[in-house]
Design a protein that fits this description.
The chain has ten helices and four strands, in the order αββααααββααααα. The chain is mostly helical. It has one domain. The radius of gyration is 17 Å and the shape is globular.
Amino acid sequence: MEQLIIPAIIAIVVAFFSVYGLTPIVIKALEKRKITVTDMNKKEKPMIPRPGGLSIIVGIESSLIILYIFFPISEILAVILTTFFAFIVGLIDDKKTMGGWFKPLALAFCAAPILLLGAYDSNLDFPLFGSVSIPLLYMALVVFMIPIMGNTINSIDVLNGVASGFITIASFALSICLFILENYEIGVVCLCLGFSSLAFYKYHKFPSRIFPGDSGAITFGAAYGGIAIIGGVEASFMMGVNF
């Protein structure tokens, strides 16, 4: 645990300040290129820059890469790859609105790193009922969970600050669960997600200066879902979705 403290502090600081510092630059770049959408939540209907996924992915990925340098385990690498692939899916949808089939199918493939790296435990733990080993069914569940969480966060991104605010709260809560279970490395991974979303919330909360877009919202959701899977806390994942 002691050897994790310094790398964790470095990663968390990078996660927060890279998003906090990069987002204003992204805002100006999007405004300059007139890549904006109407904010229907405000009476004046101002034009707001979108998407802000670039600053989000930079914050999450840079912090996780730092952790991976210190702790080169397959679980961290799986989150790095799954999150990056999900960002690409969202970015494609930001650039050109795809059909309703695109995101669920594409996000299902984003779960591949988790499966290929074996960064999961097929023993599914149910509160009150104990553990059940379902190897093949669990693999299908992994493929199912990433699209569900990615699209869930994307679907709630309808009000200023909701998507980033939800992920901030959910990530800190999930981190506590992971630390209680003594899964310290993945707990820090989850903190990196939480501090990245917290930094973005500064600009996303009402009155929003930027929207995350599909690339940002899907990145948040896929990262959270991936962490829940590799951390073996799927019950917390389900509670997050229901919330």
